[in-house]
Amino acid sequence: MSDSSGSPIQPHERYRSAMVEVKQRLRAIDRVLGAKKPRTLTADLDNEFMWLQVRKIVELVTFGGVMADEARYAALRAEAKDNPNYRRDWKVGQILKRLAEITPHYLPRPLGDMLLLKDGTKHFEAGKEKETVERFVQIYELAGEHLHVSNPFDEEAAANQQLMLAQSRARLEVEVRYLKDVLWTHVKIGLAFEPGKDDIRVPANPETAWIVLLGLAGNDEVRMALANAMPD
To answer: Smaller CB count within 10 Å for the chain: N or C?
Structure first.
């Protein structure tokens, strides 16, 4: 893919654009959560709107994992007999499962405070949350449940949906807080890979580290620092 000047878009630029969209969707959620009355028509519709943003945030994070290791992921997908074109992938659970086959860094790693060491180097403490594929998939699937109408002829399903709706706002606040804790300041690590030479499933040294700071909540600014990742 190229930009308007015809120059190819660099992976870190594409990733930063995805994080800008993540931040915008988090801000949209915050506006609804902070409103004194429904921003749509009802509280249930507000919740549905926010769960849609949550689902898209998880999708953006998932595709971000491909951006950091695109060549390695493309090589993995090329092995498939059916539908080997990774550009057509869209199912979050499947993409994350495939990424987990080729890199231990398939999700962003949350960062804590930055420390300035005696030798002048900067070091980030680990973030307070832990990124896990199970939690991201769980959030994604839960968000999807809020975007479908239950079968009106299934009384049990209708009762379960009413219970889910009653708990929706409290659960949403928990999951949004988790996503913010993981994503607000994080590092996205990419592995070294030489197509046609390296084994896609053999662990490789980290090669790139994109340090991302979403910064102030009220704007679209996303700061990114590019660094060479330290070997594991």
So the answer is: N
Q: Closest Cα to residue 165, out of 42, 56, 58, 36? A: 42
3-state secondary structure of 210: strand
What angle in degrees, to the nearest 10, is found between the helix axes of 133-145 and 92-102?
170
Of 216, 140, 169, nearest to 33 (Cα)? 169
Q: How far apart are CA 89 and CA 186, in angstroms?
A: 25
- Domain assignment present for residue 2? The answer is no
Three-state DSSP class for residue 88: helix
Q: Domain count of the chain?
A: 1
The residue range of the domain holding 175 is: 11-228
> In this structure, what are the phi and psi dihedrals at residue 24, rounded to the nearest 5 degrees?
-60, -40
- Rounded CA-CA distance 67/207 in Å is 14
Q: What global pTM score does this model have?
A: 0.92
Query: What string of pLDDT tens digits covers the 232 residues of the chain?
Result: 555 566 789 999 999 999 999 999 999 999 999 999 999 999 999 999 999 999 999 999 999 999 999 999 999 999 999 999 999 999 999 999 999 999 999 999 999 988 888 887 777 888 888 899 999 999 999 999 999 888 889 999 889 999 999 999 999 999 999 999 999 999 999 999 999 999 999 989 999 999 999 999 999 999 999 987 666 5
For residue 4, being part of any structural domain is answered with: no
Residue 213 within any structural domain of the chain: yes
Q: Who's near 10: CB < 8 A, 6+ residues apart?
A: none
